[in-house]
Amino acid sequence: MQTSITIYIHILLCPLISQVCKKLKERIEHAKIIQYTIELEINGMEMNPNNNWPVADSLKRLSQHQSGWERLEGSNDLEEPIVIPMQAGNIWDLYGGVLAQADPAGHFHFTELPSTFHHIQQEDWKISPDIPSVGDFGMDPGQDLLVWITSPTPAFPMLSLHLRTLKKAEKHPLARHEVIHHDQSIIGSDWHYSIKIMQDYIGLWVLNRAVDELTEDETTSLFIWNWKEGRLELVNAVISYLNQLNPALTDVSLQDILTPDTESFAFISDRHVVLAERYLGLLSDGNEESEIYLMLIDFKAEGATHKPLDEVRNAIKLCYPTRANGAFYDTFELSSDPAPGWEPNDDRAPFFVAKENRVFTLSVHAFRADGEMLAFYHFIPLSTLKKCLGRVNISSRQEMQWSEWAPTSTRLLRTSALPPPVWACCTFGSRFIRTVVSRPAGERGRVGHIVAQVYDFNQLALRGKDSEPRANYKCILQSELLRKQDYIWTEDVETSLPFRCFSGTLPVEASPAHKYLMCTADHIVLADVSVMVLLIFLNIDTPNSEREKELFDI
After folding, report:
1. Same domain, 438 and 537
2. Beta-carbon neighbour count of residue 113 at 10 Å?
3. Around Cβ 129, how many Cβ atoms within 10 Å?
4. Peptide bond into 154 cis (omega under 30)
5. Is residue 107 part of a domain?
6. pLDDT score for 259
7. What is the rounded distance in angstroms from the CA atom of residue 263 to the CA atom of residue 259?
8. Is 91 inside any structural domain?
9. Residue 31 belongs to what domain range?
10. Whether residue 392 is found in the same domain as residue 273
11. How far apart are CA 449 and CA 81, in angstroms?
């Protein structure tokens, strides 16, 4: 062996042959780049063009990163989770690896979560706003963007978006205007917001509740701005409902004034949004009526003319199965992070979740005719929604029945989860995380532990993986059939989008207190509302099949 090495060294020292070796070395390096590119594609990742790590190191780190999620094991550098106190300011966000919270005094606390996979150190900073009464906020670390929202008042009837940098709260250099104002003719006493940021666009869902002695009037609106230009791209207003505290004061029937209600929304692309709609109303016989559906809108083609939702033409409606008589939809919430097209703005990470690798999670809660509450998760890949966009016609609004778009390209699952009392983002990229309680087999009286259960809908990764179940892994290939007699529809509902399921036990005891899991690219985050802390996990124990009960209850 020593002789062979010596000969090889002498060959490299020969000027003539070293040219041949150089070309061979270049081919080997090129092959590594090809392998790295293929592995990135399979695992739903994208190369960071600003990063200059050697390809071999990046490929090794990619393998470690994917293995960590598949076994729910991370770095061994941190044996205990990072503990971050919840600030009790009622508004907070987790986006792009940054956790932001407001405290009761109005100060904002930021933490960039550490990542050994991406060579990111934990960083904390605090910002005290120089404007009064921030009602809500949004952020995009990839663009160093912080957006503060202030509500209209009688003295200043403007809805305002203040565009700042994330680290120093200075005027954002890419924004033409420091503040975007929108005149609001309705001034209510209670404002609620949901903000989404995608590249050049800010989407804002606004709920205004005006309450007096006689009525409670709710108005919802959806706005989309180009924040760099300060230009309004879309405004859609929907009068949700009027709760008549004294019905004798009006002869207008409830059926005439109830209209579709936008529960939540998300960006699909830099010109399309998806709205989660829950219709509420009364039938002529006095029974309650409800319907859920998705609305895909081309907001650039639609324009900024103020109009109700039913007048939007550049859109397509995605229907759900027909609801059974007496059943009622209670909530219909949409989540997906980060927005399609998102990328980091620095060179620390060699790769990031691919811009198109997204799954949208719909959380559905409904009541059967007998009063039993049922809960479902509906998982829709971005690619499925984009296929539906081909049906958008500028001349008339289109509609697709459930059988046309959902059965083979989505997955509808029954769950026992109730709506969390706090905001929680359970979806990142193609992954969704849920909480399961695990107890030692045969010891039902003992306190169990929190188990993180991750569903991964990346189809390329699924095709190349072993489908044999293991202690913490299961590949779901068979279709899911929900019988009509057991649920809330007039027909059997079957969906068959494949996915993988991984599980890992957290070193946290389960208790009656509220505990909710979230995830980022590199972290599992546990929000423990009972003691107002957030636990950030980088190291997850794999469950022992001899000690734990079967976790897969889907």
Report:
1. yes
2. 21
3. 18
4. no
5. yes
6. 36
7. 12
8. yes
9. 1-53
10. yes
11. 15
CA distances from 329 to 108, 262, 299, 426 (A): 36, 13, 27, 21
pLDDT-flagged residues of the chain (< 70):
1-30, 73-79, 185-189, 210-216, 237-260, 281-288, 393-397, 419-423, 439-447, 464-469, 511-514, 530-532, 538-554
Q: Indicate if the alpha-carbon torsion angle 513, 518, 523, 524 is positive or negative.
A: positive
Q: Give the end of a domain, one of 419, 444, 469.
A: 419
Question: Which residues have a Cβ under 8 Å from the Cβ of 302 and sit 6 or more positions away?
Answer: 234, 312, 313, 314, 315
- How many Å apart are CA 136 and CA 36, to the nearest integer? 41
How far, in Å, CA of 513 to CA of 23, rounded?
63
- Domain final residue pick, 247, 281, 309: 247
Q: Side-chain half-sphere of 292: how many Cα atoms within 13 Å?
A: 24
- Residue 273 CA: distances (Å) to CA of 81, 277, 334, 430: 36, 13, 12, 18
Together in a domain, 142 and 242? yes
Q: State the Cα–Cα distance between residues 518 and 442, nearest whole angstrom.
A: 30
Cα separation, 72 vs 453, whole angstroms: 9
What is d(CA 464, CA 32) in angstroms, rounded to the nearest whole number?
19
Q: What is the pLDDT of residues 523-537, one digit of tens each?
A: 988 888 766 678 888
Per-residue confidence (pLDDT) for residue 361, from 0 to 100 = 96
Task: Say how far apart CA 405 and CA 401 lie, in whole Å.
Answer: 7
Please give the Cα distance from 527 to 516 (Å, whole number). 5
> Are residues 552 and 509 part of one domain?
yes
CB 205 within 8 A of CB 275: no
Q: Both 32 and 89 in a single domain?
A: no
Query: What's the rounded Cα separation, in Å, for the pair 404 and 382?
Result: 16
